[in-house]
Amino acid sequence: MLHRLRIAAFLPLLVLPIFAEPGCVGELDSSPCRGRDGVSREADSVTARAAPSCAGNTGAILTTYQGVLFYSNGSCTGTWGGAYQCPDAVKRYNRHQDWHGNASTYCDAAALRERNLILLPNEYDSPGLDGDIIAFDGASCGKGVGHVGVRCGTPDATHWLLCDQNRTSRPADDPLRLTRRGGALDSFTPHCLVCGASRPGWDFSDAVGLGSGNHGFSLVDMRLVSADSAAIRLDPGDSTPQLLSPSGLRLNPDPGAGGYGRLHVFLRAGVDVRGLRVHFTTAGDPAWDEAKAQSALVPWNGGWNEVIVDLAANPRWVSGDRIDQIRIDPLKKGYLPGERGFLDLDWIRFDR
For residue 152, which of 100, 209, 236, 301 sits 20 to 30 Å off, Cα-Cα? Predict the structure, then answer.
């Protein structure tokens, strides 16, 4: 079970670049277009966007991370006005074109589940990774609606970089260099505390099922036995069990380009489950086959284990095509007299 959200009070930095207090309301709708590298995203030319009614350097590029541009909101920086609100950049970065809501929504584990994201608390032993979405919350943060950006660099062991919109209008101040306090991520203002980081994954704690309202997973030759605050329990059945993720993940599979190369599964298994085989499909190759699959052993100890599947070891995973769907097949050795088959799942998440 994931640790529950814990917000710590961080000390503000002694020296900070000049920036405005963010005010990040739900972003305006915008249509993606095809970039120079063939990836569907917003145009990297400010002329391709509708001109907002804000003066100054509105639309100027503040910084770029993994091909995604972060724009200045001009004279509207720090307000609820203008086209370049902070969630706008994050939804383009994670390709969630259908995401709507304030920045503080990224602190809501239930809301993140609906978009195949998993919330990791900002704790000393789990400060997140480059490429994670970083959310800020607080009664007066962003005039009450929070702030959100992307962790876009780790200069050294005690600092990290934040790429964002609607916090500053100056390219010199983005990305913002911040400190890590004992491993956890520090904030840029005492009004905006880091609530956590999120990345693609699923937390099955408190789930009541696996249907469209609960992660969108489906079961083949498996049965949902129970669901509680700790995990879900699955019966692998007598045939070939499969756990299918939702489709349309749009996952960047290249760890060298900020993508995700490993799948972490926190589970407890009966003695019949000896391993996991993870299959995947891509945007250009939707067929399930053995060429697009990778396996990992499950320890036979009767306890909870974090099983890591090195998907990047498969050349088809790092082919450059976006990952559309994954399928987890428990590998069984077959039942023996007196053995009980089960699979308890707490969480699944991608990592680099």
Answer: 100
